[in-house]
Amino acid sequence: MINRASLLLVDDDRHVLDSMADWLREQGFEVFEATNCREAIREIEHRKLDLVLSDIRLPDGDGFDILAHCREHRSDLIVILLTGYGTIETGIEAIRAGAFDLLTKPLIDDELNMAIERALSQRRVMEENKNLKEQLDMRFGMENIVGHDARMLRIFDIIDSIADTKATVLVTGESGTGKSMIARAIHRRSSRRNGPFVEIACGALPETLLESELFGHVAGAFTGAIGDKKGKFLQADGGTIFLDEISTASPSMQVKLLRVLQEFEFEPVGGTKTVRVNSRVILATNDDLTKSVAEGRFRQDLFYRINVINIELPPLRERLTDIPALAQHFLKTVCADSGKKMTGFSEDAMSALRAYAWPGNVRELQNVVERAVLLGRGTQVTLEDLPSRVTDTTPMPARSAEGQPLKAALDGPERQIILETLNSNNWNRHATADALGINRTTLYKKMKRLGLHDPRLTAHHSLVHSR
């Protein structure tokens, strides 16, 4: 198997340099050479390298200088130092300075090969972690939360304002409105973004198991507890813990949560040692906690403690102008994941999506679009690709009981949707058409039919005639 990695070999002994470079090339590596620090740094700056192997003693400096340059300017580059005078102290110094390894000359072929493979393996892991972090930023960052509705824009402002504080946040809204995504967006935009994000659905576990999940337990705390277990709060130390379905917590669990939220300390189940944590807490519920407090099902003091900042997510039926953008966003995501090639939605399909009430909110829309893309055979999602529960609400040519066209009865809501979108885009027809998921010609016809005129043009016309 041929290695594709690019290595820079640095040694002032030309015989050693040539001999090692030839052997490495035989192993399938692309090898570049340097005999001093100056040459090495020039190669590092101008070549795409995966690894540097450098002797410590060089005529114009040493391998530690090359290591320091890589740490400052090429942090992705792994460095292995070589020496003919290896000591424990030198090894410790090399590792502390950031070297992957320190090898002692004369080198054994297998030892060198294993060190290189370990280093390249670590580099691949680092690259995968970097890519994963970028994917998480893209998937869970606020840029992934689509919305032009005025209420959503206010929510974005709130997230920006509170992301970097430690204040407890309560996210409320109907099921499927995206509470988990909001929690992740807060975490990704905070200084804790490199720390863990730990999520737990409180309603999915019985009380005894939930306590162990949240706070951990010590060996012997209960039957089956054969070892110590770290709880979610400790796992989230330095990061964020997201407690979903908080309204389902039992009265005794509410007492325990109140203490943690006030003091950020607790004892594991069966333990006596107090554990302190530095975790940001975000909670969510689709219940009306004010009503739960009034009915005695939720502690008033806990409610006041968690309701420091409340982000209330509107249901999708109250942000109809966001449906085209959300649908297009989900379509692109599914196409990227599945390899399908679809460009958008037919006008009939988009009309059906806008007319549907979406009881399952954004989550239901995402599922409907995913189904349509995976089952669809054309370049666009059509009416036939949508489930019947969605298409049954599509305006069809029909007559009302009074003999009037049903289409006329639907003009009012359609006019309101178009008017709101025009206003939110400052009457930019191109942007409005894109937001609604229709072409500009269709928008112009609808505006004319519904009597929608740009107020700026009307004002200009009145001004001209007044003169």
Quick take:
With 467 residues, the chain is of the alpha/beta class.
Description:
The protein has 467 residues and is of the alpha/beta class. The termini are far apart. 50% of the residues lie in helices and 13% in strands. Residues 138-142, 394-404 and 458-467 have low confidence and may be disordered. Helix 13 packs across helix 15 (361-375) and helix 17 (406-424) packs across helix 18 (429-436). The longest helix is centred in the N-terminal third of the chain and has 32 residues, at 109-140.
Write the CATH architecture name of the largest domain.
3-Layer(aba) Sandwich
Number of helical runs? 20
CATH topology of the largest domain: Rossmann fold
Unreliable residue stretches: 138-142, 394-404, 458-467
Major sheet strand order? 2-1-3-6-7
Helix content: 40-55%
Mean pLDDT level: 85
Beta fraction: 5-15%
Q: Report the CATH superfamily of the largest domain.
A: P-loop containing nucleotide triphosphate hydrolases
Largest sheet: 5 strands, parallel
Structural class: alpha/beta
The CATH class assignment of the largest domain is: Alpha Beta
Outline: extended
Count of distinct strands:
16
Radius of gyration: 31 Å
The separation of the N and C termini measures 85 Å
